[in-house]
Amino acid sequence: MVKTKIFIFLVFFETLLLLMFSAYSVYSLTHMQGQLDAKRQLVRELSLTDVAFWTEARYTRHPSQADFFTAFQDFPSSIDHFPAGSIVPPK
Predict the structure, then answer these.
(1) Which contiguous run of DSSP H or E holds residue 3?
(2) What's the pTM value of the predicted model, to 2 decimals?
(3) Which of 82, 49, 50 is closest to 90 using CA atoms?
(4) pLDDT tens string for the chain (91 positions)?
(5) DSSP code for 57
């Protein structure tokens, strides 16, 4: 019986915590709208691209803008020189 009460308490607590995080995200989104608009304008003016996740290889800097064979520029069965290449596969 004690395990059941603990389980119900934890489920209730986690649900309450999830609702609090959701309410905070809505609150912060509405109050930070001016900052977001300013950042969007800066990105538009500077013509910035996607976020650079790694600074190593060309195909891991901007995965959405990489060409299809950049990872195999040395030869098709070459071993990848960079650790990020094992996380971001070639397209």
Answers:
(1) helix 2-31
(2) 0.41
(3) 82
(4) 899 999 999 999 999 999 999 999 999 888 888 888 888 898 889 887 766 666 666 666 666 666 656 555 666 666 666 666 666 665 5
(5) -
The Cα–Cα gap between 28 and 47 comes to 27
pLDDT of residue 55: 66
Domain map of the chain by residue range?
1-47, 49-91
Distance CA 9, CA 60 (A): 45
User: DSSP code of 54?
Assistant: -
CA atoms of 90 and 88, how far apart (whole Å): 7
Q: Which amino acid is at 25?
A: S
Determine contact, residues 55/61, Cβ cutoff 8 Å: yes
